[in-house]
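Worked problem 6 (solution included).
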Amino acid sequence: MKTISAILFLILLNLESAFSQGEIDTQSKILYRNERTYAVTLNSNGYSADFRYAKRLNAFKKSLYALEFSYIKHEKEAKAPISSQQLGNGFVFGKLNSFWALRAGVGLQKELFQKQDKGGISIRYFYHFGPVIGFLKPIYYELGPDSTGHSPIVKFEPHLSNIQSKAPFYDGLSELSIVPGAYGKFGFTFEFSKKDEVFSAIETGIAIDAFIKVIPIMANNENHWLFFSFYLSYRFGKVMDVRFNNKVTKLDEMLSN
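Solution. The predicted structure is:
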């Protein structure tokens, strides 16, 4: 609910500035725009970073090419039974695997509302979809010292009661496994840059990941093969003029005919 509330607040804040009077924009416009952007994202089930290339189709539409890397959590991780001692050592009781997803997709973006002045925003909707590769890495835990003073490193089992901390990240890397699937993402972009060659925006929307099998993240909770999430992103990057020597590209010539 905190993530959803933040999303709604930012949307309302940007819409208010969009329809208010602002400084008239007198800078020269980049009309034949391609965009190369990056984003950091807070998801309702984790976080991610991505790269996106938007290629101009016409004055309002762009084709999208996206590459995204995400860390996906189980929805019960924060509610798992964790003692104050365990919490201080930074691990979630009952977690079997860490899970990441690499997405690569294509899609479309369409502008709904154009910026009228420097203080305004442009509003677009977009979608992209494609294959996703999931990466599962087992988590190992360090137990309390035994009678010999040794601290064993083991995977989680429900009967364990003397876990001291999570083992280093490299434990389990040799057991990394891959799970393929597909994803889809839909959202709205609120772009508010004051300079035409710079891209700054807030994005919000939904994402769905579907894998070919159940992903075993937690031991004591039901796991899933389908992941649905809301997200909020800050996107930044560069706008590029695709005209060369003041001549439009062949694509623009075809569209104008």
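Discussion: The two ends are 50 Å apart (CA to CA).
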